[in-house]
Design goal:
Elements lengths: L1 E6 L6 E6 L2 E7 L1 H4 L9 H10 L9 E4 L3 H15 L4 H13 L4 H12 L8 E3 L2 H10 L11 H4 L5 H7 L7 H9 L14
Parallel strand pairs: 1-4, 4-5
Antiparallel strand pairs: 1-2, 2-3
Length: 196
Amino acid sequence: MRILGISAFYHDSAAALIEDGRIVAAAQEERFTRKKHDASFPRHAIGYCLEAVSAKLSDIDHIAFYDKPFLKFERLLETYIALAPKGFRSFQMAIPLWLREKLFQKSLLRKKLAEFDEEFASEKLLFAEHHLSHAASAFYPSPYEKAALARRALDPGRSALARHAEEPQSEGQIPGKLSALRAGGAARGRRGMVRS
């Protein structure tokens, strides 16, 4: 079985090809375009992966996109509502982009994949949860058969912005965060940072 994984439209677009459970090719789009953190559709990276196994896109069993746009949008709205009125300026900037482009990534991906290969069957396109994609990208290339996954990968229910406010923002904050957790709760400071 061949599975092509795609990351695109955010930053560092890339593609990886798995064949019978083994990674056979992977590349970031910026390696071909020379654009740092290239967010475009990873046409060159996909081509590189397919060329590695002498295949066409229509020969691939499944194509997995790293995120679920509607789920992400729902979490984004929940976060903005929970933090209102703070973040209104960010909301004003983000929502038009989401309504114009990001909500329709499924259509855009289908279109781009069909341009890549006319025989592409759109039902092969699957979407994964963002945090599980991160966990999978760490676990599957490892030599281990079992692994403990961090809570954020297993419980992606909290929004990214809410999690960001709870996580240490630098190595210097880690001891304070650990102390707060040992004390039975996070001692909240300004902007959700932990006081040490």
